[in-house]
């Protein structure tokens, strides 16, 4: 089986979890390589709905081993809770989950700093998930962080290290934010307990992933968030703090680029964004509310209403090119079933000029006005369709246009939440 990387082509929440779950059958490893519990993947499996934040969506494939790579920032309390919740539902996790010793830890002060900084920025805030992601990556870059491997230290050394870090963070909390200190000893004691239960999963990534490196084992790399939230290539500063685009799969695992295999992009049939920052095709008021209700567009991590808008070809092409996507999946097509007409942004207007390439810089994007091409709606339900030929003509033409414009074949179209509610189009929608 060849390796694959699944990447979000927009601002996250594209439905990557469902695609990973659908294509993960038979794979040896499902690997997460960036981000942390800011992600929220909703999956239907075993007749239940599960929301995962840290564990890869591939955890529902019993034979697959799961890996949390060095590029991640991991809240050990959250990790323990997620494992316990799945095991209570008879999904075996222990023995199949491995965590890179070099992945960084999110500690309670990271969350606190995230919240306080956001509050201080007021209306200029990023709109983070409040999971401590930014501050944890700051500590990593500052060479001041704690890593999963620290949980393997002798008890006294671990306690000493945690207390030192918390006391240090307490100074920042009180001096910068006039906030109460966190209880260093309590946090250290809790981490010692967590270290016992998580310790057996912590491994050297170079050794654990040797089979993938040597081509003996297959891997599915599961991206979190989306290309436009990438902290180098996204709409900075309104981004997350990791590389959600394809490069993250290399730096976040220590595997060489030749191990990545195919790069597959997941796009919603429209666009959403949660948090602040430019969104040229955003709909306002009733139109946005209509898509939000139909699509259940509320954050899986924070419950925040997502901002909704039309499909944006400039942003899409940027994501395809940046990642070298060789195949695409379109999700939530059924959400558009009742739209009388659909718009797709084919260009932007900026200061009287027509742009056909995504300008990326937030300050430019904020001023861009989309130029739309209108498509007729199809006015009938698509959820029961399983073959391309069963889709209404206008829906097929909408997809054909997206495929042609993005320049990569659409391999699958999701028309509902269930695992089987997908139309597989291995050769693309134009070739059919
Ligand atoms: P952070 O990752 O919590 O620091 O949040 C930074 C930005 O990324 C905010 O706009 C968040 O709403 C957004 N974000 C983070 N994770 C996700 C996700 O999984 N889906 C969608 N947006 C996300």
Kindly list the characteristics that best describe this protein:
432 residues, alpha/beta, Adenylosuccinate Synthetase, Chain A, domain 1, Adenylosuccinate Synthetase, subunit A, domain 2, Adenylosuccinate Synthetase, Chain A, domain 3, 3 domains, ten-stranded mixed β-sheet, four-stranded mixed β-sheet, 13 helices, 20 strands, globular, binds inosinic acid
Verbal overview:
The chain is of the alpha/beta class and 432 residues long. The protein folds into 3 domains: 4-101 and 201-263, Adenylosuccinate Synthetase, subunit A, domain 1 (Adenylosuccinate Synthetase, Chain A, domain 1, 3-Layer(aba) Sandwich); 105-199, Orthogonal Bundle (Adenylosuccinate Synthetase, subunit A, domain 2), CATH 1.10.300.10; 267-424, Adenylosuccinate Synthetase, Chain A, domain 3. The chain has helices at 16-23, 76-88, 108-121, 133-141, 155-177, 184-198, 205-208, 210-213, 247-251, 285-295, 313-323, 362-365, 393-406; strands spanning 4-8, 29-32, 41-45, 48-52, 65-68, 73-74, 97-100, 104-105, 202-203, 219-222, 262-268, 271-273, 307-309, 311-312, 327-331, 341-350, 353-355, 369-376, 410-414, 422-424. A 10-stranded mixed β-sheet has the order 9-7-5-2-10-1-11-15-19-20, sandwiched between helices. Strands 14, 16, 17 and 18 form a 4-stranded mixed β-sheet that branches. A two-stranded antiparallel sheet has the order 3-4. It is globular, with a radius of gyration of 22 Å. It binds inosinic acid. Inosinic acid binds next to helix 4.
């Amino acid at each position: 089986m060849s390796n694959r990387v699944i990447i979000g082509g927009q601002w996250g929440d594209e439905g990557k979890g469902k695609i990973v779950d659908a294509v993960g059958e038979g794979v040896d490893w499902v690997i997460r390589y960036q981000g942390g519990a800011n992600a929220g993947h909703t999956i239907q499996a075993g007749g239940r709905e599960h929301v995962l934040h840290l564990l890869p969506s591939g955890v529902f494939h019993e034979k697959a081993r799961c890996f949390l790579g060095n590029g991640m920032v991991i809240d050990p309390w959250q990790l323990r809770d997620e494992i316990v919740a799945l095991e209570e539902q008879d999904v075996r996790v222990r023995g199949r989950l491995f965590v890179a010793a070099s992945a960084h830890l999110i500690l309670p002060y990271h969350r606190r700093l995230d919240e306080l900084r956001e509050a201080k920025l007021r209306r200029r805030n990023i709109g983070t998930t409040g999971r401590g992601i930014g501050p944890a990556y700051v500590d990593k870059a500052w060479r001041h962080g704690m890593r999963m491997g620290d949980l393997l230290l002798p008890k006294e050394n671990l306690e000493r290290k945690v207390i030192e870090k918390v006391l240090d963070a307490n100074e920042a909390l009180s001096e910068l934010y006039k906030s109460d200190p966190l209880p260093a000893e309590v946090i250290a004691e809790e981490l010692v307990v967590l270290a016992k239960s998580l310790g057996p999963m912590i491994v050297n990534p170079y050794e654990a992933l040797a089979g993938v490196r040597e081509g003996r084992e297959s891997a599915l790399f599961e991206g979190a968030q989306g290309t436009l939230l990438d902290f180098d290539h996204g709409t900075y500063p309104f981004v997350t703090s990791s590389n959600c685009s394809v490069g993250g799969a290399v730096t976040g695992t220590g595997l060489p680029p030749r191990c990545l295999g195919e790069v597959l992009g997941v796009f919603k049939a429209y666009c959403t964004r949660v948090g602040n920052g430019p969104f040229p095709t955003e709909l306002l008021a009733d139109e946005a509310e209509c898509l939000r209700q139909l699509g259940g567009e509320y954050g899986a991590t924070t419950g925040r209403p997502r901002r909704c808008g039309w499909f944006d070809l400039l942003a899409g092409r940027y994501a395809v090119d940046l990642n070298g996507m060789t195949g695409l999946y379109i999700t939530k097509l059924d959400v558009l079933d009742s739209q009388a007409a659909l718009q797709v942004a084919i260009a932007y207007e900026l200061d009287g000029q027509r742009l056909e390439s995504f300008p990326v810089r937030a300050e430019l994007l904020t001023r861009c006005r989309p130029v739309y091409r209108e498509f007729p709606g199809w006015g009938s339900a698509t959820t029961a369709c399983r073959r391309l030929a069963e889709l209404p003509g206008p829906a097929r033409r909408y997809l054909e246009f997206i495929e042609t414009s993005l320049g990569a074949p659409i391999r699958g179209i999701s028309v509902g939440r269930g695992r089987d509610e997908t139309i597989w189009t291995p050769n693309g929608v134009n070739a059919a």
